Amino acid sequence: MTDTELLFNPFLPDFDADPYPHYQRMRDQDPVHEHPLGFWLVTRYDDVTALLRAKLSVESGNLAGGPIADQFQQLEDSTRALSMLDRDPPDHTRLRALVTKVFTVKAIAALEPMVTDLVDRSLDRVADGGRVDLIDELAFPLPFAVISEMLGTPPADHERLRELSGTLVRSLEVQTDPAVIQAINDAEFELTEMMRDIIEWKRANPADDLLTALIAAEHDGDRLTEDELVAQVLLLYVAGHETTVNLIGNGAIALLRNPDQLALLRATPGLAANAVEELLRYDSPVQQSRRITVAPHTIGGREIPAGAFVIAGLASANRDDRHFGPDANDLRIDRADARTHVSFGAGPHHCLGAALARLEGRLALGKLVTRFPNLSLDGDVAWNGRLNLRGAAKLPVTV
């Protein structure tokens, strides 16, 4: 089968800028799709939600073999594999309980004044620049500053961290290039050492912050081991900013390309929270989530064998007209069921940072569009080339 004949081929030239027609074709033609590269892709809303809530694995050791198992074997000798994102119960349950003790809804809500101040300062820079890259001036620095402030980390090389985390998140995608796999391993090693240094510094400089609380966190007499602590901090650091960069960037693009919805948000600021839900649905910051079958598993009328790598198509599910209706491909910030999107996943691995992402998205996008009535695109959007954490790498705007 040639590349052009593949039903799912993210390397087609138009996929990066707009994958949604490709997902629609999959939903219509083969919604539970077995790919020649050895993975399965599930694309309809009901099937995706069922997959996310099923008692399946995320641990690569349960793969039966094949190219995906080979990829994980090359990546798995790492501290990152100890993160709660990569563990099944009972380890996942224990790790999540420890992190949840300090990552509470109340703690997130208390961050609003700090996030508001950071947004205002970013928008001051945008105003001073006149014509700026919105990723560099708002979408990246805001969530990076927020997670750094929450953790209470010392000053760091932001650009290097951005570069390394951008490489590391490619481990969330199917990779066949040995050079990419090596780059991921190198980035992870460097990031892990940086996290160890940060944790060592924090032990010597405890404060009222998330990292100090994580170091001290105890649940039923249990504490994080040193490697587990490093893995959770690395997860929070990377997930705490990579995904929100996409929410802000993709959200701004969607509003600018739909001027009627942009005008509605400006005229009705009270819609900001629901607008964030709709923007999460319309162009999901995280496009996929993985599961591994531990026994034959039937979904969408097809039986997937044990040991299979299964991709839950979050972005595809969010555009499924079987759930969201005939206007599923349209942006509607007043959509009544927007919050039923699956951009934060579902089931036991539902995103722990959902409340934080919602807070940052509401403040950043709400303030951006109200402060700059003449905000407009000023050049071509450059996409980051990632399949899973798909977002804009460059977003030129004028205010």
TrEMBL record:
PROSITE patterns from the UniProt entry: CYTOCHROME_P450
InterPro entries reported for this sequence: Cyt_P450 (IPR001128), Cyt_P450_B (IPR002397), Cyt_P450_CS (IPR017972), Cyt_P450_sf (IPR036396)
Coiled coil: none
Keywords for this protein: Heme, Iron, Metal-binding, Monooxygenase, Oxidoreductase
GO molecular function, one term: monooxygenase activity
Gene3D superfamilies, sorted: Cytochrome P450
Superkingdom of origin: Bacteria
UniProt record similarity statement: Belongs to the cytochrome P450 family.
Protein name: Cytochrome P450
High-level lineage: Bacteria, Bacillati, Actinomycetota, Actinomycetes, Pseudonocardiales
